[in-house]
Amino acid sequence: MPYPAYLIVTVISWAGVLAGLFAFAHALTQRADAYAAADRKTKPIWLAITGGSTVAMALFGFFGPGMIFWLAGLIASLVYIVDVRPKLIEVQRGGQNW
Question: Where are the transmembrane segments (predicted)?
Fold first, then answer.
């Protein structure tokens, strides 16, 4: 693979890992009862999902035979970031809509 293409693939791979780390860190720092109040899965389940997805993205790169695992990990992390995280923030702030 030419060098610029390799650099782009490497940046994409590690950006996914960073997104997974962000999702895991956020899940770790939230109160356990907020997950139930937001009508989402429990905190240990989301820690397992985000942690497992981060490990999968770190082990398997964006380009290669394990790309399907990297992609599944990215999707799991993004589901947490886009769906669960806003609900947790809303619940913990009292659900006020300004």
Answer: 6-25, 68-84
Nearest to 43 by CA among 91, 7, 95, 2: 91
pTM of the model: 0.88
Indicate the SS3 state at residue 93: helix
Within the chain, which residues score under 50 in pLDDT? 98
- Residue of 19, 6, 20 lying closest to 63 (CA atoms): 6
What is the C-alpha separation between 91 and 86, in angstroms, rounded?
9
Alpha helices for the chain (secondary structure H): 3-29, 32-37, 43-59, 67-79, 85-93
Q: Cα separation of 77 and 33, whole Å?
A: 21
